[in-house]
Write a structure and sequence with these properties.
252 residues, alpha/beta, 13% strand
């Protein structure tokens, strides 16, 4: 673990890391356990990832915790996930406070159960003075929901005469996304070996680097996080330019 960590250049950390936490159910099934067992076992992965990012100096970490499509899962599993979220906010509060972590949410949180909303409000208030990393929980969130919501807001503003249609551009839409207060993610990690976004950060991930870990989420630990960041730092991020242009900009 130390060897991997020592390879990380802290001057070139991704400012914002997004994580698609995948594989809880399949991991549990492989052990002959119910899916809920996988979700409960994943709390340690959350703790390791949050602590690891905070210790390195990552400024923003978004965990894709519950998508708008997850409501289609069995009612018992959804209820267990909501209770687990409430319990985890309580059990991890001291860890967040010790690391100066500020809790935030994105997504249609109004659609969550009252107990979940109350726990989130408590966590956000208790950590509001944190000056370290911002931990963003994407709850009842999807990229399509985010884009549709922003487009609807723009349409209403144009209809009300508060904005000209010609003024609707990329910046205007970005400013109305639920993530408008945060930088776009530079690194997105997905666990369990799956290679897809699953409706996460469809707009914001335009220039993100992707890292697909074969590790199921319940087994993801700090060395796996370090491996993703080391891989990120070995990438050449061109943003549409050529390698030669980047070299010229670095060595004029």
């Amino acid at each position: 673990m130390q060897e991997l960590k020592q390879q990380i250049d802290k001057a070139r950390l991704p400012h914002h890391v997004g994580v698609i936490m995948d594989g809880n159910g399949r991991w549990a099934k492989g052990k002959g356990k119910p899916r809920v067992f996988g979700h409960h076992s994943a709390v340690e992965a959350v703790r390791a990832t949050v602590e690891g990012c905070a210790e390195l100096g990552v400024r923003y970490l978004t965990l894709y915790a519950f998508s708008t499509e997850n409501w289609d899962r069995p009612e018992m599993e959804v209820g267990a996930l909501m209770k687990l979220l409430v319990d985890t906010i309580g059990s991890e509060m001291q860890m967040m406070l010790d690391n100066g972590i500020r809790l935030a949410t994105i997504g249609d949180t109004a659609g969550l159960p009252e107990a979940t909303r109350d726990a989130l409000a408590f966590g956000i208030e208790q950590t509001s003075h944190g000056e370290g990393m911002t931990l963003i929980l994407a709850l009842n969130y999807s990229g399509k929901w985010d884009l549709a919501r922003a487009a609807r807001q723009l349409a209403l503003e144009v209809e009300a005469g508060r904005m000209e249609a010609a003024a609707v551009d990329e910046a205007a839409l970005s400013a109305r996304l639920s993530t408008h207060a945060y930088p776009d993610p530079e690194l997105i990690i997905r666990t369990s070996g799956e290679h897809r976004l699953s409706n996460f950060f469809l707009w914001q991930a335009a220039y993100a680097e992707f890292y697909f870990s074969p590790v199921f989420w319940p087994e993801f630990r700090k060395p796996d996080l370090y491996a993703a960041i080391v891989d990120f730092q070995q990438r050449e991020r061109r943003f549409g330019k050529t390698s030669e242009q980047l070299k010229q900009a670095t060595n004029p």
